[in-house]
Amino acid sequence: MKLAVVQTNPTFGEKSKNIAEALQLMQSTQADLYVLPELFATGYNFATVEEVQHLAEPFRTGVTFKELEQFAHEQRSYVVYGFAEKSNGKLYNSAGIIGHDGTVGLYRKIHLFDREKLFFAPGDKPFQVFDTPHGKVGIMVCFDWYFPESARTLALKGAQLIAHPSNLVLPNCPNSMPTRCLENRVFAATANRIGTENRGVAPLTYIGQSQITSPRGEILHRAPADKPEIAVKDVDLTVTDNKNVTPRNHLLDDRRPEFYA
Length: 261
Ligand code: ACM
Fold this sequence. Notes:
The protein has 6 helices and 16 strands. It has 261 residues and is of the alpha/beta class. The protein has one domain: Carbon-nitrogen hydrolase (Nitrilase/N-carbamoyl-D-aminoacid amidohydrolase, 4-Layer Sandwich), CATH 3.60.110. It has a 6-stranded mixed beta sheet with strand order 5-4-3-2-1-14. It has a 6-stranded mixed beta sheet with strand order 6-7-8-9-12-13, with helices on one face. Helix 6 (173-184) links the parallel strand 8 (161-165) and strand 9. The N and C termini lie far apart (38 Å). It binds acetamide. Acetamide binds next to loops.
């Protein structure tokens, strides 16, 4: 399959501009699955909960969903993207998957980072894996990578690829994803943003370096730290099905959960 990571530079609060710029990058390059950053349409560095309420949207009826759904249908592709979700009076830092075949799925970030805890409710749904004709796609969002249980859970549920919308501000994720991929033998597509958001609260600078990582821990592509771009790699997700490290060692079957509590 052709797997794309889309690195953008959103302007805080300018949803239609941010969506249009992401779509322009995506339209420039054909892929089977596009992964966009966390909160790519709204921006990330909220100052107040009122701002989140104003910019958040319901999943299936929101403008971000509608625009990406149309794109997925036109390009016969899949899209995974991060968005601010409003549901039953709660706000979540969520990610959606939309496919041209009618696939629709939702993940709500389980491990909230720093000030996100002021604005969002923690995810209340299990990690999920979605079936596509290209393979099984699991979703985690940004800081979830810091908890090895996230990628492990997705691998145990059969994920061959982890789609990883992100707004990374700490430096460690790009060099750590090879370990996450190696220990679970999965691909990962980490889509990050660039730029600085200085909004009267602690300013944040995002590190870019969106990355496609192989099940052997190879960095197949790393984007620059400071430029928007779209990068596409041809990957065969079926290679993740062989979990043997040696003929006698299986990454998942050799686990000893009775000793992990
Ligand atoms: C993060 O989880 N956005 C750092």
